[in-house]
Write a structure and sequence with these properties.
Strand order of the largest sheet: 4-3-7-1-2-6-5
Number of strands: 12
Number of helices: 5
Bound molecules: flavin-adenine dinucleotide
Largest sheet: 7 strands, antiparallel
CATH superfamily of the largest domain: Nucleotide-binding domain of ferredoxin-NADP reductase (FNR) module
Length: 266
């Protein structure tokens, strides 16, 4: 007897209920980065457990003054994108999110006009990167979309660790101090405004590094095709064991709403 689709389908991913949040602060960090603070009673119990975890933000669609609250069995809202809860303050029910203003796209366009009092829905958190706090060497490679994730990783590193951090950004005007208990060596790598060059500055800087020790933990997050090229560079020419690498495609050139689970292990 053949089983019905209901019995063979994988269990649906458990989704946490959407939380209504309001913009209470918009901060210009640099020409291409906005820090937006979201607050709401529905953030009660919102506690991301790992660095580089993620949330889904639902933005208003054209003609809406605020997004509709998503219903449990309704299709996914079109204007929903993945972001990093950078700083969470449970005592005041606030979360900071840093947005790259990269150009077209509902999230980037919304962030460029964001104002106090505007409303979004937030879902999550989803899991991030389990930082190995016993490791003494870390190599963190990211573009600007993953700079918030890198900052949460840096915040979790102990003083006994050292981290080499390569960050690809649009221009040198994006540079800012980074905080960590660990000893940091940071390189800011301006890419310019042509997103087609995504990953090239990271690749060039990686090739110029001294040999990577076998016990180095590597976290890599950037444009999806660049992430795959850099994984191959690490595992091929640079002789790194793939087990040392955790990689994430954070966005994809010419693709709308790239999925949040692109690990490049295909
Ligand atoms: C786990 C995770 C966490 C993330 N955290 C953050 C975060 O904290 N801050 C943040 O800014 N981004 C973050 N991102 C990336 C963000 O989800 C994407 O950049 C998303 O595509 C933005 O949506 P959009 O509506 O602006 O553009 P979309 O509608 O998705 O795409 C429109 C066009 O813009 C291009 N595009 C999208 N993103 C970028 C970019 N960053 N640079 C250049 N071109 C781009 C696409 O290729 C496409 O052509 C994260 C992604 C993941 C998977």
């Amino acid at each position: 007897m053949s089983s019905s689709p209901e019995t063979t389908a994988p269990p649906a991913r458990k989704r946490r209920p959407p939380r209504r949040v309001e913009v209470i602060r918009v901060e210009v960090l640099s020409p291409a980065m906005r820090r937006i603070t979201l607050k709401g009673d529905e953030l009660e119990g919102f506690t991301p457990e790992t660095p580089a975890s993620y949330i889904k933000l639902i933005f208003p669609e054209p003609g809406q003054s605020e997004p509709l609250r998503p219903l449990p069995d309704a299709p996914r809202p079109k204007a929903m994108r993945t972001y990093t809860p950078l700083a969470v303050r449970p005592e005041t029910l606030e979360v900071d999110v840093d947005f790259v203003l990269h150009g077209e796209g509902p999230a980037s366009t919304w962030a460029a006009q964001a104002q106090v009092g505007q409303v979004l829905f937030l879902m999550g958190p989803g899991p991030g990167y389990a930082v190995d706090t016993t490791a003494t060497q870390h190599l963190l490679l990211a573009d600007d979309s993953a700079l918030p994730a890198i900052e949460t990783i840096l915040a979790a590193l102990p003083a006994s660790a050292a981290a080499q951090v390569l960050l690809e950004v649009i221009s040198a005007a994006e540079e800012r101090p980074l905080q960590s208990a660990a000893t940091l060596e940071v390189q800011w790598l301006p890419r310019g405004t042509d997103h087609r060059a995504a990953g090239q500055p990271l690749e060039a800087a990686l090739r110029a590094l001294p040999a990577i020790a076998a016990d180095t933990k590597i976290y890599l997050a950037c444009e999806a095709a660049a992430m795959r090229r850099i994984r191959e560079l690490l595992a091929g020419e640079l002789g790194v064991d793939r087990k040392q690498i955790v990689s994430r495609g954070y966005w994809k050139l010419d693709a709308i709403n790239h999925p949040d689970h692109d690990y490049g292990e295909d």
